Each structure stands twice: as structure tokens, then as C-alpha cells.
């Protein structure tokens, strides 16, 4: 607890699932928050701010800003500095749309996906990054996805957007490093927040080494670490919080330890999944 005590953290699209999760996790660690979202989720961030103030007792401001606009992003940055006097951490979580069959996706869908999921990252990093550079320290965490590396036939705009976020992160780390500002990407994998069909859920889990979907804490844990001074030597990287899926998914099932006829290789097969066994030993 208190690993982020008195740090000022800005979280974009805080009304989304991951925005809310990171906001509450940071508040539990003592951070002061500024929550941004668009007009359609204004009631969500208002409720979230009230809940965090009540549950965690930290200072929280919220603002409705269209951060696909440079003018709006500048005004938001000024508002944060007015209220807090500094910005220590920026967490970009914004994303909108980008899913569907390639031939059905229309230009406006592409535009909103790229504007909210990439352009807003650039603008917030530009304006807030400058404020961090003025004081010689800051942490920028860009939430991205394994799809930015792997691509997805059912989410071409989303994959392009997340790939752009990855490249943006690499460039920002180089541009801001001499000013003491760290910039990292946090790529999330499949989580239990996604409404899978039973068939799709089973197929996805079969390709995850831990044989389960990710939880909220599986994402917020790395997000906390990347915001602390413990990770000061980490910049210009995309950290994969995906239980190894990005690499394991490319492996044929017949070559997996849980599927391959292990006796032929003299390998002992464990009836109990390794992760569960380790957890049981830890609890005892």
C-alpha cells in the first residue's frame, strides 16, 4: 500500500473497464487522480470519482474533454496543473470500436478508432509529457494490446491502432528520455471482461499457458509497478501482461506440454496445473 502516495495520476477514458480498474488500483496505493472521459461517459466518471473518494479517501478530479483535439487536450492539461500543480503519471487507456469483418468496416469507424485510440495518445503524451519534462521526471503508461503485434482478422483497425501505440511508445521514450520521462506500453491479453461465447472462451483458454483468462488484478498489478520508482530503469518497452499468449498462441497444440504424448519424451505429466499447485502450496 501507499506505493503511489501523493503521486498525481491522469487516467484517460477512465469510465471504461480498464480505466476504472486502474483508477481504483492507483487510489488504493495512495495516488491523487484526474479522470478523463468523453461526454457519453460523463456520468460514469462522476460516479467513479465519488466512489473512489468514499472508498479510498484520496483526492480526485474528473473532467470531460475531447482529447482527440489539441486545443481540448491543452485545456485539460492546464486544468490538471491548476488543480494539482504537477503531473507524475499518465495512463492512456482510450479505445473505441475497430472490430468487425474487414469488408463491413466503414471509414467513420476507422476514424473514431484511430482518433481515440492513437491520436489521443499522441496529444496527451505531447502536452502532459512537456509538463513532466519541465520538472525532469514522469511516467507515461500506454495501454495497448497483444493485437498490436499479432494482428486480428476480426479487428483490423484495432490492431493497426494498437500497433501504432506501440511504435508511438518507442519514439516517445527516445524523445523524452533525456528529460527523465519514462514511457512504456502495457499490452493486455485475453481477460474475463470479454463476453466470449463458451466455444470461443474454451478455444482461447486452450492457447493460454496458465489455462485461464486474465483478471482485473493481472492488469492492474503491472500498471502499478510501471508507475512506481521501482521501474525507473524501464522505458521504451512494451510489457506483455498476457500469460504468454502472444507467443504460445502461435504454437501448434500437438507441441504443447498438456497435449503432446509426453511419455515418449520421458516427461512427467502433472494432473494438477502448475499454477494451481503452486498457489495451493503457497496458501498452506
Task: Give a short overview.
By secondary structure, the protein is an alpha/beta fold. The protein contains 10 helices and 7 strands.
Order of helices and strands: EHEHEHEHEHHEHHEHH
- Ends: how far apart? 24 Å
Q: What class, by secondary structure content? A: alpha/beta
Second-tier CATH architecture of the largest domain: 3-Layer(aba) Sandwich
Write the layout of secondary structure elements.
Layout: E1 8-11, H1 17-28, E2 32-37, H2 42-56, E3 60-64, H3 70-84, E4 89-92, H4 107-135, E5 138-145, H5 147-150, H6 156-176, E6 181-188, H7 198-206, H8 216-227, E7 238-241, H9 245-248, H10 274-283
Parallel strand pairs: 1-2, 1-4, 2-3, 4-5, 5-6, 6-7
In words, what does this structure look like?
There is one protein chain. With 284 residues, the chain is α/β, with parallel strands linked by helices. It has two domains: 8-251, Rossmann fold (3-Layer(aba) Sandwich), CATH 3.40.50.720; 253-284, no CATH class. The chain has helices at residues 17-28, 42-56, 70-84, 107-135, 147-150, 156-176, 198-206, 216-227, 245-248, 274-283, and strands spanning 8-11, 32-37, 60-64, 89-92, 138-145, 181-188, 238-241. It has a seven-stranded parallel sheet, sandwiched between helices. Helix 4 links the parallel strand 4 (89-92) and strand 5. The longest helix has 29 residues, at 107-135. The relative contact order is 0.11. The model is unreliable at 255-269 (pLDDT under 50).
Amino acid at each position: 500500500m501507499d506505493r503511489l502516495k501523493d503521486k498525481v495520476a491522469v487516467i484517460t477514458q477512465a469510465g471504461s473497464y480498464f480505466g476504472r480498474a486502474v483508477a481504483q488500483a492507483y487510489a488504493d496505493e495512495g495516488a491523487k487522480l484526474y479522470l478523463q472521459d468523453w461526454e457519453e461517459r460523463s456520468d460514469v466518471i462522476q460516479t467513479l470519482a465519488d466512489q473512489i473518494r468514499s472508498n479510498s479517501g484520496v483526492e480526485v478530479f474528473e473532467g470531460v474533454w475531447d482529447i482527440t483535439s489539441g486545443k481540448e487536450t491543452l485545456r485539460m492539461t492546464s486544468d490538471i496543473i491548476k488543480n494539482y500543480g504537477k503531473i507524475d503519471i499518465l495512463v492512456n487507456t482510450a479505445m473505441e470500436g475497430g472490430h468487425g469483418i474487414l469488408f463491413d468496416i466503414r471509414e467513420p469507424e476507422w476514424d473514431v478508432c484511430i482518433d481515440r485510440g492513437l491520436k489521443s495518445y499522441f496529444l496527451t503524451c505531447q502536452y502532459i509529457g512537456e509538463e513532466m519534462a519541465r520538472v525532469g521526471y514522469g511516467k507515461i503508461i500506454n495501454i495497448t494490446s497483444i493485437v498490436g503485434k499479432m494482428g486480428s482478422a476480426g479487428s483490423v483497425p484495432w490492431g493497426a491502432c494498437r500497433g501504432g501505440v506501440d511504435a508511438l511508445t518507442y519514439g516517445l521514450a527516445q524523445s523524452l528520455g533525456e528529460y527523465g520521462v519514462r514511457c512504456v506500453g502495457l499490452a493486455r491479453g485475453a481477460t474475463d471482461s470479454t463476453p466470449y461465447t463458451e466455444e470461443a472462451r474454451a478455444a482461447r483458454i486452450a492457447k493460454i499457458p496458465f489455462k485461464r483468462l486474465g483478471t482485473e488484478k493481472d492488469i492492474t498489478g503491472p500498471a502499478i509497478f510501471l508507475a512506481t520508482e521501482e521501474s525507473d530503469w524501464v522505458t521504451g518497452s512494451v510489457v506483455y501482461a498476457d500469460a504468454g499468449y502472444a507467443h504460445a498462441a502461435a504454437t501448434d497444440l500437438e507441441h504443447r506440454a498438456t497435449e503432446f504424448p509426453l511419455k515418449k519424451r520421458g516427461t512427467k505429466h502433472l494432473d494438477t496445473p502448475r499454477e494451481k499447485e503452486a498457489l495451493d502450496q503457497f496458501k498452506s
